Amino acid sequence: MIKDSTLAYEEAFLCKDAFFVKNTRGRMYPVKECPVRTEFQRDRDRIIHSKSFRRLMHKMQVFLAPEGDHYRTRLTHTLEVAQIARTIARALRLNEDLTEAAALGHDLGHTPFGHSGERALDYLLPEGFRHNEQSLRVVDYLENEGEGLNLTFEVRDAILCHTGDEPASTLEGRIIKVADRIAYINHDIDDAARAGILNIADIPKEISELLGNTHGQRITSLVTAAIENGVENGIGLTEPYGTAMDRLRDFMFDRVYRNEKAKGEDGKVVNMITFLYEHFFAHPEQIPNEYMKYAERDGISVVTADFIAGMTDRYALGCFNELFVPKVWQYK
């Protein structure tokens, strides 16, 4: 088969600590073998062709409805994470296909309006809401008209563990957590500077002297530190780069993520998500069938959150306007 050359490449090139596709724990239910692609390559393609992946282009990253064409969205963030993760995996001779698939799928469950939407659903659901768990739910159940994508265990595990305390079971999966942080901290600096929220010169001097003064320099420094850390020490950053990234993240929380100018509309987002949740919880007949098929098993609260989490920013706004904003009445 055509894919035999890829399998031979894995055997010849990947390091001993890499995860070989031949060792996969498989899918939730069996599928016919593909003659061209390995199982992790199929997972990558299933994610890219999914509706939830396309919807990421209309979900905000940090700034609510920014004016301008160059601000990141959840989709461009995902692509940057995938690029960084693949660079690290290739340099460490780990499985690049597994890494790429997990990176592309890691945020499929993110809500409209970023972490503001996530916080709203976390408050509303009795069992809470976490976007990494929702990403796994998307690929397991909600995608493909409610049939799921039926991904391999290793990709699913990496998606679930890209945030939180539980490490992924593979080194490739652990790369996603590092790449995610490298990506969002640095592109959020770029977007905040573009928005006038942050001046690059405000970054503490000792951080800039170590990591660099530009977007590219900072990413190169941190990616290099991840590669130099190697696989023997697990996946992480060498010092002093790990501490510098933590300090840079703290700086971004102080100056951007909690900035009143940047986040002044967050309260409205929470109110809007709350109104939508309460409405669809009370009127489940208005929730699409691919979500409702799991209502008996998981409960109306969960499928209501499924529906809202899957919305794009503009779809959520459109629903809110349709349901709660009075329309102009005209006498004819």
Characterize this entry briefly.
This protein has helices at residues 4-13, 39-48, 51-55, 74-91, 96-105, 114-124, 131-146, 153-160, 171-194, 205-211, 215-229, 241-257, 266-282, 289-292, 295-298, 300-309, 313-324. It is mostly helical and 332 residues long. The chain has a single domain, classed as Hypothetical protein af1432.
- Overall CATH class: Mainly Alpha
* The CATH homologous superfamily: Hypothetical protein af1432
Shape category: globular
The largest β sheet comes out as:
none
SSE blueprint and pairings:
Layout: H1 4-13, H2 39-48, H3 51-55, H4 74-91, H5 96-105, H6 114-124, H7 131-146, H8 153-160, H9 171-194, H10 205-211, H11 215-229, H12 241-257, H13 266-282, H14 289-292, H15 295-298, H16 300-309, H17 313-324
Helix pairs in contact: 2-5, 4-5, 4-9, 4-11, 5-8, 5-9, 6-13, 7-8, 8-9, 9-11, 9-12, 13-16, 13-17
Write structural notes for this entry.
- This protein has 17 helices and no strands.
- With 332 residues, the chain is mainly α.
- It has a single domain (4-259), classed as Orthogonal Bundle (Hypothetical protein af1432).
- The termini are far apart.
Task: Spell out the key features of this protein.
Hypothetical protein af1432, 332 residues, 17 helices, mainly alpha
